[in-house]
Amino acid sequence: MKKALITGASGGIGFEVARRLAAQNYQLTLVARNEDKLNKALAGLNSNGHSIFVADLTKKEDLKKVADHLATNKYDVLINNAGAGLYGQFIGLPLEDQLNTMQLNMDALVTLSYSFLEKASSGSALVNIGSLLAHSSLPGGAVYAGTKSFVANFSESLWYEFKHKGVFVMGFNPGAADSDFHSNAGRQSTDFPKFVISSVVDVADELVKALHKRQKPRVVQGLKNRLMLWGFKFLSRKSAVSIMGQISPGMSH
């Protein structure tokens, strides 16, 4: 039985991915900061043998506990899904909150990747959840978009470093999804134009499919998102960023 650890697994994309892997006979460890939500997620899986790990990855002591767990327990798959962001203009948001976003989206992801890859053997896989915004920018969400650019570049570099060892690394980049990310960030998914929103079910389906195919270091989720990035190639960078600013929930229009 293969084992997978998923961060940010108490709901949204993380939980939907967990459901699919559980159905494929993976033994799962679900990581998130809210114990009640984790227990509900655990009850929603269709088989036994799974476990939860309560940890707030913005706290160094909690992050160390998860990293130590990865260092002493062999997993076949790590999915770094935990992430957060804030909508709003840069100097209109508390600096400390934005630094916490950087801690979770980058520092925690790098730390857990390191612990996992130290023990990874041929056949293992690391999936880091980035964002479409890694490749398109987002005025009104500058720090979040910047962290996801880091995740995309970092993951692609690791893909090359580890491919000859038989260890697969993928940066998976979803577009805006109908999860609670947006309410946690201070807006709602409905603040985006409807045509840009994907369901968490579709995102999870595509992620698991890409994990099993193991073909690309960078996967952009959703045909509409891939078409948007393709279209941006024919625009100046100034025009592309201006379009993102116009549709951003973090800007005052």
Automatic annotation (TrEMBL):
GO terms for cellular component: membrane. This is SDR family NAD(P)-dependent oxidoreductase. Belongs to the short-chain dehydrogenases/reductases (SDR) family. One of its GO terms (molecular function) is oxidoreductase activity. It holds the Pfam family adh_short. The keyword rRNA processing does not apply. The keyword Oxidoreductase applies. It comes from the Bacteria. Keywords: Oxidoreductase. It comes from Chitinophaga tropicalis.
